[in-house]
Description:
Helices cover 3% and strands 42% of the residues. It has 174 residues and is mainly β. β4 and β5 form a beta hairpin. The protein is globular and about 40 Å long. The strands form four sheets. A five-stranded antiparallel beta sheet has the order 1-10-11-12-13, with no helix packed on it.
Amino acid sequence: CTAAPSGALRMSPDGATIVGAGSAASKREATVYGSDLGVIAPLKGFSDDVASVAVGEKLIACGEYRTIRLFDLETRASRGVLEKAHGGTVTCLALCGKKLVSASGDKSAKAWNTDTLALITTFTGHTNWVFAVDLSDSVVATGSHMPLIMPRLGDDSAARGAEVKRVSDAIAAA
């Protein structure tokens, strides 16, 4: 799987949809654009600034108040909210199929199932905010002010100082 990294601006895998964090009207929404850059719709309902977006099978946005919101890519209907997903600002996201990894100012990254919204595991070990995250089918990479941590999904061993919890077989199959 090719991960859909997050950022202030992301394109769907087919190139038909572009999503931007914030809008001309408010930083508390994300904007969905067509490939011609015409506005399709704003995504509203955020109580804080939208920090980052990721686009894959779903459209996902995160914000400063620990919240992650999931939307259907085609209809833009809400598909769930992870309230208090982290103990600090959610800084970035990576999406790969039904796997989502979020990173935060609480010095952690978390893996989620996007269908059930269940927390799969929490990756710890950073000494400062986690500002970067990416994933493949089997590896999660996180970055902060210290060296990169790359625990393997399903690996019980510590990876470069990270506390790694076993990922359920369900995520490996997702």
